[in-house]
Structures are given as structure tokens and as C-alpha cells.
Write the C-alpha cells for this entry.
Amino acid sequence: MKNYGKLTMGIIVVWFIFALSASALHLFKNDANRIGVEVAIAALVPIVVFSLWFVVSEKFRQFALSLNPRTLTALQSWRFIGFIFVLLEARGALPAIFAWPAGYGDMVIGVTASLAAWKLADANHRNGFILWQLLGILDLVVAVGVGTTAGFLSPQGPTMAPMTVLPLSLVPTFLVPLFLIFHVICIAQAKNWKSFSERTRQTAGAPACNLSRIS
């Protein structure tokens, strides 16, 4: 498990350096009113790699499921930085059709992340925990959806160009896929949780099964 921890941290660091370096070299820059294919590739590759690794490797899957769900959920608090989108929209730097749903959605998830980690990350609140994670994924999907279609939905408004250069380019190329992976891990963990009542029923039923076998 320790080896997977070091390997995973190393991959995340390399991923961040790549996203930062590529942004510094303006590889993601796009002056059109859209997010270019370069950004889309940079965002999708980590998700695809994680998904395949999670499905194919049992040891990596065990490592991922052993991570602390409270920590993974609390890290979503960083999404409060979505208020930057709203500020930039107010200054005419980002289109409202993207900034409002993405900004306010991220702020809601960021504000409630600590509460979800503290109150919902246990077996007795499994459904609520999964629901919160799904809402977090929905926020990311909506943000990406309106971000990639803003040019068609609001052709006369400000462009999405600021999201393709530093520092905002790190959001779609690093933070969005990372937070999405955290959500997926937490949901996978929660699906394996058993509430106190379920554990009690199983414990109570075990002796009866044993007695029936003896008789």
C-alpha cells in the first residue's frame, strides 16, 4: 500500500508539473470563444488512466478504496475558489453562461465539503454521502458542458480564453479531473459500507444459521 501511495503521489506531482508547464508554454491557449481540444485531452487522459487502472488492477483498487473518505471529501473545500469565476464575469472577462453555474456550483460544494466530510462520511449516512458526491460530479459536468459550448450558447459574450491560460488553465487540466476522481473513489467506498442496523441483522442472523446447520 505504501508503494502505491508513493507512486500515486508521484504521478499527481508529474501531472501538475505537466499542466503547469504546458500552460506556461501556452499550449492550451485558445482565443476563440471555446475551450480547445488540447484542454479536453489534458482533462480526459487522467480520468481514463485512473478508470482503467482502477478496473484492471485489484491492488490499486484496494489502495484507492483504503483512502480516507473524510479527507478526500474535505479536499473538495478548495472548490470555493469558484467565486473567481463570478468576479471575472462581473468584470466582463468570462461569459455569465459559464461563470454563474460553474462559480456558484463550486462555491456550494466547497462550502458544504467540510460538513459532508464530518457528518455524512459514515455507513449510517451512506445515501446522503453518495448523493452529495453525485451533486459534486453534476457540478463539474455542468461546468465543463457550458464551458465547452459557451461559444455557441453566447456567441456575442466574453470568450472562454481566460480558462486556457494560467492560472485558470489549471482548473480544467488538473483540478476538475482530480476532484472528479476523488468523487468516484468516495462513491465506490460508500457502496461497500454497511449501516449499523445491517451489521446488527447479520450478526444476529449468524448464530441461527449455524444452529440450523447443526440440526
About this structure: Residues 2-195 form one domain. Residues 20 and 170 are 7 Å apart (CA to CA). The chain has a mean pLDDT of 90.
